Batch of 2 targets.
Target 1
Amino acid sequence: MCTLQIGISGRTLPFEFIVLPDCSHDIILGWNFLKASGALIDCGRFELTLDDVEVTSEEVVLKPLRLCVMKDCRLLAYSIRKIPVVNRCREDSGNVIVEGSKLLALKKEVFMPSMLVTLRRGKTEIWVVNGQSQEKVIPQGMCVAFAEPFCPDCIATISETSKVSTEISETKQSFEFLNMISPDLDANQK
């Protein structure tokens, strides 16, 4: 696996690739480049073939950021807590969408919801859940989640909520119950 710098639309972007020497001539398939553009680089013919797909730098370059635990964290049985995490490769800031590590869920049975958090200089805190009856320890440096930049256009939001009127009819039982919890009653009346 190697990295190749390719210029597209005046921008030079890095792509991973592999050379397939078993063909009649070498063909390079760029994994993330191929995924984003349908590219085939044919060294024998000196050709680069692209599908009719528009290539954007976000699709091609951005890999999920690895979020690792900053210090050993103890998770009590049946607990939920925030733990500090850091991305050591880049000190980006901004909103990111976090997905928990499936490996962590399978091996340690520690889960985390997908969430939107703000990364500040590569650091943030994320929620983790231990649903087991025994304490778990997440060691410092362990990768617990992956983060991708938040794209507001990719999220569907509800701008207006319809107000549904809920009418509750009072029955004799509900009236008696309301009287039992009235703050005006003394201890004997309750």
Note: The chain has a mean pLDDT of 73.
Target 2
Amino acid sequence: MSSTEKKNTTEPVDKEAVRKLIDELEGKLKSLYTLSDEVNRGILESKDALKSLREKRVKLITARLDRIFQQWNIGPLTSNHQPSGSWSGSRIELGSDSNWE
């Protein structure tokens, strides 16, 4: 038999083994979908937790800044405070060697 003839020869297929393999793969695929759903749920919970934490941090920092501003007699951070008196319209000069401009 030549090598070409060997390639064209079909071997008998064990249909039961193929069915068993397909069932096993379908089970693994179902497990992957379940794990994927759990990961997605965890991601959403993490996003919600991070958002909540971020909001708490903003409130805490705002409260701290408001206390500091109150000590310095500056209006609270949440107000639309406009400076009055000699500060109104003033510009703080940083000097000629400044890299701020």
Note: The chain is about 60% helix and 0% strand.
